[in-house]
Amino acid sequence: MMDEGQAVAAFAALGQAHRLRIVRRLVTAGPEGLAAGLLAEAVGVSATNLSFHLKELSRAGLVTAQREGRSIRYRAAYPDLSALIQFLMRDCCQGRPEVCAPAVAALATCCPEPA
Amino acid sequence: MMDEGQAVAAFAALGQAHRLRIVRRLVTAGPEGLAAGLLAEAVGVSATNLSFHLKELSRAGLVTAQREGRSIRYRAAYPDLSALIQFLMRDCCQGRPEVCAPAVAALATCCPEPA
DNA sequence: TCTACGTTTCAATGATGTTTGAAATATTGA
DNA sequence: TCAATATTTCAAACATCATTGAAACGTAGA
User: Fold this and answer.
1) Closest CA to A62 of A87, A45, A83
2) What are the pLDDT digits (tens) for A24-80?
3) CATH of the domain at A12
4) Cα(B73)–Cα(A55) distance, integer angstroms
């Protein structure tokens, strides 16, 4: 369960255009992730700058890294992204369940029914 | 539907400890909101500093303000918070529906079944 | 071992964000 | 109109963040 401090770190990490694009790209890449070089090209940022942002995202727990030959493969940290959504929903629903309805509706359109 | 730019602004706004506490407090306060003075006390921040953060949150569309006598009442902008959750979920589920399962489970524990 | 490749680290620079206290503004009630 | 209350604006100081290019590092193949 994500605490307030972790949530602040995660939000701050996502509150930067390049970084948000990076995690979006990694999420769409799926569990296979993407090598840093390809990511840099996809996001349109220098290798140096990408490295800076990836370190930032990594500190926030939003991405993971794994060396693979001479490249380094990055992946979205799905559990932590999930935890962040839950944090937002916990807050958002607190005492006001109806607030979540739109989110629930969105879920229905993007996901299959949960078990 | 929230776009990437709005999402960056919202995340950046929430990625600051004082501001996150402010919106959490406003969310728990419900639709009635809270006067600035009470908020300042609740969050433990000077009036001046609170004003700065509220302006920031307001720019990001996360809170609304309404004068009421000599106080100003602030409220959480539920629709925008909801839209932010949806943005995260759209990304998160993209091509990987199973990622949302924990979020769905969380929904079940905090919200009634949607219509 | 040498060279090329992919990535990170470092140091410098400029840009933004946060906090503070004093002063200004708006509202109310005497 | 005056004084009190609630909040914001302003300017200054400080801290943090983003970007850049050069250099360093680790890995792979000739």
Assistant:
1) A83
2) 999 999 999 999 999 999 999 999 999 999 999 999 999 999 999 999 999 999 999
3) 1.10.10.10
4) 40
Rg of chain A over all Cα atoms, to the nearest angstrom: 16
User: Does A102 sit within 8 Å of B27, measured CB to CB?
Assistant: no
Question: Distances in Å between the alpha carbon of A77 and those of A113, B76, B103?
Answer: 23, 29, 14
| Prediction pTM value | 0.92
Question: What positions of strand D are covered by protein, i.e. any atom < 7 Å from a CB?
Answer: 4-10, 17-23, 26-28
Q: What range defines the domain where residue A115 resides?
A: 1-115
B48 touches strand D (CB under 7 A): yes
Number of structural domains chain A divides into: 1
A96 vs B: CB within 8 A: yes
Task: Give me the residues paired with residue A72 across strands.
Answer: A67
Listing DSSP states for B13-57 in one string gives: HHSSHHHHHHHHHHHHHGGG-EEHHHHHHHHT--HHHHHHHHHHH
